[in-house]
Write a structure and sequence with these properties.
Blueprint (H helix, E strand, L loop, with lengths): L2 E4 L2 E5 L3 H14 L11 H8 L10 E10 L2 E11 H7 L3 E9 L3 H17 L4 E4 L11 E4 L15 H8 L3 E12 L6 H14 L2 E3 L4 H18 L11 H11 L8 E5 L5 E9 L2 H7 L5 H13 L2 E9 L8 H15 L4 E4 L2 E2 L3 H4 L7 E13 L2
Parallel strand pairs: 5-6, 12-13
Antiparallel strand pairs: 1-2, 2-3, 3-4, 4-5, 6-15, 7-15, 8-13, 8-14, 8-15, 9-10, 10-11, 11-12
Length: about 375
């Protein structure tokens, strides 16, 4: 096992099952008692970070390290080189992700420098993060809204994280905004008025999913819409068929068709969608992200008791973005929220310069919930 000593801090490369378990479990220790940190689903973390099970992302290189001090794990970091992103965006970037550390700038410095050194071996000249393998992973360091709970799909970190990044010479590369909106008690008149007009003029209409076969079909269609909708957004790279198959298989069992709004054209092709999940934060915290029998009970209980909806993904094909298809999507989601006593919704992080996405919520009562940042620095 490779060990590097830096000011009495040991940086050890993750090697084997025991190290991987330590890597995955470190945040649980770091955030113990913090009700704003929401653990990821542990089995998914093991699958995503296991080098032997990374076949769906063959264009990414991965290396992980743990930081030790006085024999205790005090930090972790993953280095990722997304070859497709570097090709598409004409960069030579190494990404850092899964970055957690105690309140000690030397620990953070040692971990980040290790990623820099590793990236230089492959000809990289810039480091950026936190980012994952793709946009489907958690990304962006929390810089505002520390008092609010994160979610299954977002990063939570302590306020000393961004302060440490600034002290180490990292600068802003991109910001994501996450917002909270109040679900209206009745369908807004504007959406009710535009729904039939949009259907008449665009030929698009809501598709009600009734079977597993349709769930699979429109689940695949959703990611193809993502490829065509997000292709100009920060660091995005199109998902491959293998990745799409993997995500459909992983997410389909958890999708509640009531909160999967699908809009199709006259040929039954998906042109827009919104995928939402009732918040299971409380269940994840109580189960510690583990699918044990008691953990599953906590998740189910949380699912039925929550009054919060998480808007995970919304996408409309470019050629339909000016036709009002979003009105059909929101009509479906609001209707389900009203029927199921959902009173608030939290958007997924949206890039602050993605005005078309941000403006979708202009007609709602809305306020900022959290802000996240991706940092960058040239490698010396």
């Amino acid at each position: 096992m490779q060990v590097v000593f830096m000011n009495q801090i040991e940086i050890r490369k993750v090697d084997g099952r025991r190290d991987l378990n330590l890597f995955i479990d470190f945040p649980e220790k770091l955030y113990k008692g913090n009700q704003c940190w929401v653990p990821p689903i542990r089995r998914d973390e093991k699958k995503n970070l296991n080098p032997n099970k990374k076949q769906a992302i063959p264009f990414c290189k991965l290396c992980m390290w743990l930081a030790y001090k006085d024999g205790e794990v005090v930090g972790r970091i993953a280095g990722i080189i997304n070859e497709n992103a570097n090709r598409d965006w004409k960069t030579k970037r190494v990404r850092f992700g899964w970055f957690d550390f105690i309140d000690d700038i030397q620990v953070a410095k040692a971990l980040l420098e290790k990623v820099e050194q590793w990236g230089k071996l492959y000809g990289m000249n810039e480091i950026c993060g936190p980012l994952g393998f793709t946009d489907m992973d958690r990304e962006g360091m929390l810089i505002e809204g520390f008092e609010n709970p994160a979610s299954l799909t977002t990063i939570y970190n302590y306020p000393y994280y961004p302060k440490t990044m600034q002290c180490l010479g990292y600068e802003k590369d991109a910001d994501w905004l996450q917002r909270e909106l109040v679900v209206p008690e009745k369908m807004p008149d504007k959406i009710e008025y535009f729904k039939p007009l949009v259907e008449q003029h665009s030929g698009a209409h809501i598709k009600f999913i009734t079977s597993k076969k349709e769930m699979k079909k429109y689940g695949e269609g959703m990611f193809y819409v993502v490829n065509n909708t997000f292709n100009k957004l920060y660091e995005f790279t199109p998902l491959t068929k293998e990745q799409i198959d993997k995500y459909v298989k992983s997410y389909s069992p958890f999708i509640n068709k009531k909160y999967f709004a699908t809009v199709v054209d006259n040929n039954d092709n998906l042109v827009g969608f919104a995928l939402c999940f009732p918040s299971i934060n409380n269940g994840l915290i109580k189960s510690r992200g583990r699918f044990t029998p008691s953990g599953i009970c906590h998740l189910i209980s949380s699912f039925f008791k929550t009054k919060t909806l998480e808007l995970w993904l919304i996408g409309v094909l470019p050629e339909y973005q000016s036709t009002g298809v979003s009105a059909l999507i929101f009509h479906r989601i609001i209707q389900q929220c009203i029927e199921n006593n959902i009173t608030r919704a939290i958007t997924n992080p949206q890039l602050e310069d993605n005005l078309s996405a941000l403006q979708l919520f202009d007609d709602f009562s809305i306020k900022q919930y959290q802000r996240r940042r991706c940092y960058k620095k040239m490698i010396n």
